[in-house]
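Worked example 2:
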Amino acid sequence: MSEIVWTIAGSDSGGGAGIQADLQAMRSFGVHGCSVITALTAQNSLAVEALNPVDLTVIESQLQALAHDLRPQAIKIGMLANVQQIQLIAEHLQYYRDNWETPPQVVYDPVAIASSGDSLIEEDAQSEIADAIKTHLLPLVDVITPNVYETQLLTGVYLIGPDALRDAAKRLQQWGVKAVIIKGGHWDYPQGYCVDFCRHGEQEYWLGNESVVTPHTHGTGCTLSSVLASCLAKGYPLKDAFILGKAYINAGLKAAKRYGEGVGPVAHTQFPENLADFPLVIEPGTWLGDALDFDCANDFNYAAGFAPCPERLGLYAVVDSLDWLALCLQNGMKTVQLRIKDAEAGNLEQDIIRAIELGKTHQAQVFINDHWQLALKHGAYGVHLGQEDLHTANLKAIQDAGMRLGLSTHGFYEMLLAHNYRPSYMAFGAIYPTTTKDMSGQIQGLEKLRHFVPLMQPHYPCVAIGGIDLMCMDEVVETGVGSIAVVRAITEAADPQAAIAELQQAIAGALE
């Protein structure tokens, strides 16, 4: 069953923003969009000529009808024309939170206080609406998506430099909202770049790309918040929804065109498929991180561009002992990872030395998981690291030694973070639930894998990992991924040698 997302917003008679843009964005991400209309605007590409708030009883009837039959996984809120509408929507959100088994996630785009030059709120109500938002709505909102002007009006913080964005986001969180995304379309810092900031709890995420130069930007805020709501409804983490929303907006701006005599709307395309549309994940060491004056004390960890692997790694075994590693190599496997989690094991160094020797004997790619110091010391073919290791491992030393680097990724944000480093390969997972490690909240599934492969495989060997066995091998192979990692499919098989042969045969056809 398709996920359901409501949009509670105004109607744009010109078709570029509001309800009209929301529903198009939701369709692009494969969710079913429902609407609650709060205002009827008379506008075209040149101006908003009239604003007609919908009566509270009409809004109430729309909400009740949808709640009776089409309960949402997420709600996007856009234009609320007056204080009474804000109070009504807040009452309903509170009811959903208190009485529904699974309350919807709420994304709020505060367009009531937009800076377009045309008022989208009732005259002389800006201050009262801002107060009502902070008092009634923000404690019930999961994500708020203000632009620079809206952020300054709500918080009183003038946005000069990254620290000011952090301060403004913290202030919004103090009023109860869980996450803040400050859109950078009007920030222009560094000049010529669009930098967007997300603060979710205590976590911070920064994205940046060259500004897409076009006058046709109508509806970008509505569209971004609708994509966020759609992705959250589908179970995506916020950081993934954030990066997909930005990619969708970038693609839409590039394809935008004029329809009337004024400003045209952002175009509605499809789930982002072009890596050039994705923003850069900004961190210390990247030039944008330096431009934003990020703390660069650990820059020695940042290195981009590692020795290449074969284009397709084929069947990839992940094992936890020398015996299993030897068995895999003896049965023709060319890519194996030794994953020994006990860093205090007395024989750890000797096992790594022997694993490296076995790899050379069998002319195979043997990767050492985590223990990069020992891998570096003894000349391993490569190391495999998790995202948490990027800020602790000496990546420059690994790069200088000519060792290959494989990186784990769990979703689209981590995919783009890994792309900063230009690793030797990327692993994407977990595709299915697995008992080998705790992957709570990180199951990616085939749908995400189908999007991941065309984005990354032209640039890196891609590895699918997590819960894959012979029963589901065919459907994973059909995504086009060039390598499939297995653990239990070999180590828990009744006949491991026969299992290796069957798995090799299953993947071979797709890689020819």
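The chain has 18 helices and 18 strands. The mean pLDDT is 92.
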